[in-house]
Amino acid sequence: MSDVLVVAEHRRGELREVSYELLTAGRRLADAAEGDLHVAVISGDVEEYAEDLSREGVDAIHTVADGEEFNHDRYVAALVALAGDLDPEFVITPNSVNGLDYAPALAGRLGRPLVTDAVAVDVDGEGLVVNREMYGSKVETVIEVAEGPFVVTVRGGEFPPAEAVAEPEITAHDLDIGDLGSTVTGYEEVGAGDVDISEADFLVSVGRGIEEEENLSLIEDLAEVTGATISSSRPIVDNGWLPKNRQVGQSGKTVTPTVYLAIGISGAVQHVAGMKGAETIIAVNKDPNAPIFDIADYGIVGDLFDVVPELIDELN
Amino acid sequence: MKILVTVKEIAEVADDFQIADNEIEETYLEYDLNEWDDYAVEEGVQLVEEGLADEVVAATIGPERAEETIRMALAKGADRAVRVWDDALEAQDLLDVETKADIFAAIVEEEQPDIVLTGVQANDDSFGATGVALAERIDYEWAAVVNNLDLDLDEGVAHVRRELEGGLEELTDVDVPAVFTIQTGINEPRYASLRGIRQAQSKEIAPKTLADLGLEESDADSVLQVAEMFEPEAEGEAEFLEGDAGDQAGQLADVLADVGVLGE
Ligand SMILES: Cc1cc2nc3c(=O)[nH]c(=O)nc-3n(C[C@H](O)[C@H](O)[C@H](O)COP(=O)(O)OP(=O)(O)OC[C@H]3O[C@@H](n4cnc5c(N)ncnc54)[C@H](O)[C@@H]3O)c2cc1C
Predict the structure, then answer these.
(1) Is the pLDDT of residue A277 over 60?
(2) pLDDT tier for residue A274 given thresholds of 50, 70 and 90
(3) A17 phi and psi, to 5 degrees?
(4) Percent of chain A beyond pLDDT 90?
(5) If we measure between CA atoms, which residue out of A183, A9, A288, A249 comes closest to residue B175?
(6) Cβ of B132 and A315 within 8 Å?
(7) How far apart are the C-alpha atoms of B144 and B180, rounded to whole Å?
(8) Mean pLDDT throughout A130-155?
């Protein structure tokens, strides 16, 4: 019997959606390994979180009421202690920014192999089988990890969230956390500004394919004739060509327009995270294998410097 | 104060490519400096220019070919480089995080840097884990996904910003020595100047084997096996608009008109 320990994630008083998704991933792995699904929730209002996490398929919840918000030193210490008690074969964490801030250290401390950013997980004999993407999502690989026990980080948005309510056993743990080498001193929202792209009905979104800042005028012209709002992928903002409030994606804004026209954007997972909810996705890209076409409703394989001027002409 | 920056030569895949034996065929790969590492190098070089650090050493795991990429880091201002490779590493099809952390830990042992900078992730294998795994191994503090770094050497603390999801940033104080994984946008990486490129030719890239670092061949053994590699399945079926650019634009205009978003 091989148990699974899923680590929940919360921020500013709320469990994050990925926590419920991981319950589903964890349950599937626990079923395949014929084990129990344990869930750990650390810091903040753990009693309330434990109640929320009491969903179908969860056998036991472990709370560690120490600290308010995420701190990686605390997470590593608490999880090393819990893993020592529970001896799970699999520890699953979100592949979030915070997941990547503690999972590698946890794996190291436990002396376990780590596989990050799993989009599917399964068990084969004694080993773990993980699907993950490489080369900017252009290829998917099936990775076999022979020797357990394992630590895996799972990508958000890949599993349906666990829903139905259950009554797992909830245990509060009083652990000796020790010294913290890092201290969170605050949070800051960035990216506010005059335009709210999350309200727009039609977004013309530009990516690194535009090559030069001067070329942005082409996209401005298109936005002008279509009445669309301009948004972008991250490199455009990193380069300082557009302000942060125009960035779509994991670290930018989530948008749900009627039409999202992606021009010269490859469709990296962190970008897609912010726009996959658009009603109609149209992509213009010269690379027929660009991952953006995998989620697009309409695709144009072509050079944006040929297609966009023609489109402007057409609409004028 | 010394800074170690880990840099990786990453493989980029051509627009059209073929997979054979669970590998992308070599002819479809082009090599370049990992985007995130470019920002990490720049951050290190700026700390020297601000007088906060004395030296930037670039460390890489990669074959001789990778020297071309490492020279880019040297041309942008890194002082010297260490490159680790040997047959045992060559024999692996996918290096695991543990192996990379072991190798960089051995370099840290030799170099004794105060700060280690890595990229958040490498754009080819995208593990996103080497920096934090290394920190644990060498018993340094750390912060992942850093988009602002403000060193207070008197206090022995770095004030950093970590970029969380959804436009939220976390402000964190981290005890130094520490490892920071650097996010794009933290600075503006410079282009290598002609002078920089010339100077880089005479800078040292010290080749090392696992044995040179006191590691065993077996330390290279990866627990990860690539069992399959394929093109991901499309979630939906995109309708491709065919023809020349004019035809495509015409059909696109029709689609936009049909959906009814064409406004003012
Ligand atoms: C923690 C983290 C958070 C991140 N958050 C975000 C985020 O919020 N938003 C975001 O966007 N990214 C984010 N990223 C970055 C993300 O991983 C990608 O690097 C980024 O999305 C790539 O942007 P791009 O598609 O514009 O560029 P690229 O990936 O370089 O793609 C450019 C595309 O343009 C095409 N192209 C080039 N020339 C032409 C032409 N002439 N005509 C037509 N097509 C052309 C190319 O074929 C290519 O597909 C994040 C990364 C990390 C690690």
Answers:
(1) yes
(2) very high
(3) -50, -40
(4) 95
(5) A183
(6) no
(7) 6
(8) 94
The confidence score (pLDDT) of residue A193 equals 84
pLDDT at B264 over 90: no
Two structure tokens written together for B58: 């670039």
Distance CA B5, CA A310 (A): 46
Q: Are A76 and B104 in contact (CB under 8 A)?
A: no
Confidence category of residue A178, pLDDT binned at 50, 70, 90: confident
Q: What are B48-90's pLDDT values in tens digits?
A: 999 999 999 999 999 999 999 999 999 999 999 999 999 999 9
Structure tokens at A271: 């970008």
| Closest by Cα among B96, B138, B21 to A147 | B96
CB contact set of A253 (below 8 Å; sequence gap of 6+): A191, A197, A198, A231, A245, A247, A274, B166, B167
What distance in Å separates the CA atoms of residue B94 and residue B10, rounded to the nearest whole number? 13
C-alpha B145/C-alpha A253 separation (Å) is 18
Residues 6+ apart with CB under 8 A from B123: A135, A136, B10, B12, B34, B35, B36
Q: Which pLDDT value is given to residue B49?
A: 97
A235 in contact with ligand 1, CB cutoff 6 A: yes
Q: Answer for the pair A270, A249: CB distance below 8 angstroms, yes or no.
A: yes
Q: Does A184 contact B97 at a Cβ distance shorter than 8 Å?
A: no
Q: What are B151's strand-pairing partners? A: B158
Chain B nearest C-alpha distance from A48 (Å): 23
Strand pairing category for A150-154 and A114-118: parallel
pLDDT computed for residue A191 by the predictor? 82
Contact present, B224 and A143 (Cβ < 8 Å): yes
DSSP string, A51-94: HHT-BTT--EEEEE---SS--HHHHHHHHHHHHHHH--SEEEEE
| Residue written as token pair 């994630």 | A9
Q: Is the CB of A241 under 6 A from ligand 1?
A: no
pTM over 0.95: yes
Mutate to test the pocket of ligand 1, among A285, A295, A304 (most ligand atoms within 8 A of CB): A285
- Residues A286 and A209 sit within 8 Å (Cβ to Cβ): yes
ipTM for the assembly: 0.96
Q: How far apart are CA B106 and CA B209, in angstroms?
A: 11
Q: Are A304 and A205 in contact (CB under 8 A)?
A: no
Task: Label the pairing between strands B178-182 and B141-152.
Answer: parallel
Beta-bridge partners for B152? B157
What tokens does B152 get? 């207070």
Report the SS3 class of residue A138. coil
